[in-house]
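Researcher: Here's a chain I'd like modeled. Treat it as a single chain, no partners, no ligands.
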Amino acid sequence: MSEPVRTSRNGQILEVVLDRPKANAIDVATSRELGSVFEKFLAAPELRVAILTGGGDRFFSAGWDLISASEGEAADSDYGIGGFGGITELKDRTKPIIAAVNGMAVGGGFELVLAADFVIAAEDAQFFLPEVQRGLVADAASFRLPKRLPRALAMELLLTGRRMSAAEACDRGLINQVVPKAAVMETARSLAQEILKAAPLSIAAVMEIVRETEAMPLEACYAAMRNGKWQHYETMLKSDDAVEGPRAFAEKRDPVWTGK
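Model: Modeled as a single isolated chain. Structure tokens:
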């Protein structure tokens, strides 16, 4: 039997494969393992981008393992660091996660997609939330989806379980790209390489600013910025990399980032 969570290094990129045949469903033990993987990713200075994908070619993830649920695993179990799937409640993230959706993203699998920073999906990928038809609630999706889609559409997906195609998800701005299934990982890796061209402290600062200002009016955003409330933003301003970037531009060369 294969490991339910497999990881590999590709330079500064961490690749994480959720591999639990037949549907890559997530039980408590697997969720905790994913949380540990992503916690270590955030703590490792040599790693800057993570890619999460599913094993096989039919499912990205079917979400919560209903077989485990039927055997007594509670919906309100302690799913470990980062909450369900290791990323739905992963706080204060300073490094981006790319979801490489190679198949169906169902229930909690869709919630992992919503928690990612970028999404590359196969042409045949589908996104849907069947929880209400199982007497349950897609809680993380209920939080996030109405902020990402028009309310009427979000309610339709949450209350009917309708399947959204990859093409529709892309048209609605929910995901970044739709590509042939065979190109999903290659495209995700290419995107990761583009991210690596940016200064790591700048990436951390942007992620901090976006997270902290999602519910703020514009005036409050500027006030918080000027009051020095954002740690990563302040670190970036005073960094060697903030000097290196303009210098490299003036000297017509690629910058050499130190993360300091």
